[in-house]
User: What shape does this take?
Amino acid sequence: MDFHQLSLPGIGTKYELETDEKDIISVVYMENGNVQIYTRSRAGDDYCSAELNAMEARRLGNVLTGAIIEAEQEGVEISFSALCDLRISVHTYIIRKNLSGKSIGEMNIRSRTGATVIAVSRGGKNTVNPRPSYVFEAGDTVVVIGEADQIKLFEKEILG
Assistant: This one.
């Protein structure tokens, strides 16, 4: 495997990986925030390209590292082997209309499920560590953290 980095003035930065099978994958981080991906087969006669916006590039990165991605939710599980194999799950969910107008405290999320809402995104603004008085609106994206069984209970008890 061979890896190179090249600055492209006025364009961005190019990273190129040659695989053990001699295929070439090039990734160009553009100055405008987009990412271009190019591939060339080992035979050198097949070229492919794609341009991704920043969100698409992050999602592809999650796929390549094994994070689970679904249409309305995404999540990752983190293992801490130094802490008796502690496994913590972090998931995002879209708040539906039936939860609109309800606060975190009113729903007793932590006491009912053990999971914790650690962030809410609404209209391009993020609220980290929202207070129990935080009231959800339909379309909010929430980030929930907990052990796998707590996340499942959150999905069942809160999201229904």
Q: What stands out?
A: Residues 69-159 form a domain with the Alpha-Beta Plaits fold (CATH 3.30.70.1450). The two ends are 47 Å apart (CA to CA).
